[in-house]
Amino acid sequence: MPTTDPRIDAYIAKAPEFARPILTHIREVVHTAIPDVEETVKWGSPHFMYRGMIGGMGAFRQHCAFGLWKAKLIPGVGAGDDAEAAAGSFGRITSIRDLPSKRALIGFVREAARLNEEGVKAPAQRKAKGPRPDLPVPPELTAALARNRKARETFEAFSPSHRREYSEWIGEAKSEETRTRRLAQAIEWLAEGKSRNWKYQSR
User: Fold this and answer.
1) Cys-Cys link to 38, which of 49, 75, 143, 182 (CB 3.0-4.6 A)?
2) How many whole angstroms separate alpha carbon 71 and alpha carbon 150?
3) Alpha-carbon span 31 to 43, nearest angstrom
4) 160 and 106 belong to one structural domain
5) Are 113 and 95 within 8 A, CB to CB?
6) Number of domains the chain is built from
7) Domain presence at residue 125
8) How far apart are the first and last CA of the chain?
9) Which residues contact 121 (CB under 8 A, 6 or more apart)?
């Protein structure tokens, strides 16, 4: 049986309806390609580990993304500028049809695993020409923001780095209780116009 992380089960369950089959398909492909893969949550979204980072996936409002950490070293993976702008190695994914065939995708993931097994390092990243793309917003934060106009306006007006701080803080909670508590605190602070680290910034 594959080793799964319940936080990823929760992430998929709370993702937009169109995204759930896409994320489930990607997850199944990764486990098929690497039976010993480990799941985790980093930067608020699902990631896969096997002797180092393999890659991660995420759900946005209108598309999904799947990125392989060493995509530039894997022949056939579309890791050009357009794909990077969409926060993944395969561009904007709005349905399973936007991904390579299951067989091809398994091959790409297995190649990523081989690179990790052989200790091949990822190529040095060029400096981004612009701001980093937003981290996928946890679905429960999106839902809570929809119910609180002041918090939503603050969040949408924030810089990507400030939005990322809130997304990471909520997304990396290890338990549902902690996530719920952090979500309530985040909405309270956002309604007051505060960033995630406002306590430190005011000193």
Assistant:
1) 49
2) 40
3) 21
4) no
5) no
6) 2
7) no
8) 50
9) none
Convert the chain into a string of H (helix), E (strand) and C (coil).
Answer: CCCCCHHHHHHHHHCCCCHHHHHHHHHHHHHHHCCCCEEEEECCEEEEECCCEEEEEEECCCCEEEEECCHHHCCCCCCCHHHHHCCCCCCCECCHHHCCCHHHHHHHHHHHHHHHHCCCCCCCCCCCCCCCCCCCCCHHHHHHHHCCHHHHHHHHHCCHHHHHHHHHHHHCCCCHHHHHHHHHHHHHHHHCCCCCCHHHHCC
Q: Has residue 131 been placed in a domain?
A: no
**Greatest extent of the chain over all pairs of C-alpha atoms, in Å:** 55
Output the six-digit token pair for 79.
Answer: 């890791």
What's the domain range around 178? 139-201
At residue 105, what is the residue type?
A: L
For the chain, 203 residues long, give each residue's pLDDT as a single digit of tens.
578 899 999 999 999 999 999 999 999 999 999 999 999 998 888 999 999 999 999 998 889 999 999 998 999 886 443 334 445 889 889 999 999 999 999 999 999 999 999 998 877 655 545 555 556 788 888 889 999 999 999 998 988 888 888 888 888 888 888 989 999 999 999 999 988 887 765 44
- Which residue bears the tokens 């701001």? 131
Closest to 99 in 3D by CA, of 42, 36, 24: 24
14 and 109 inside one domain: yes
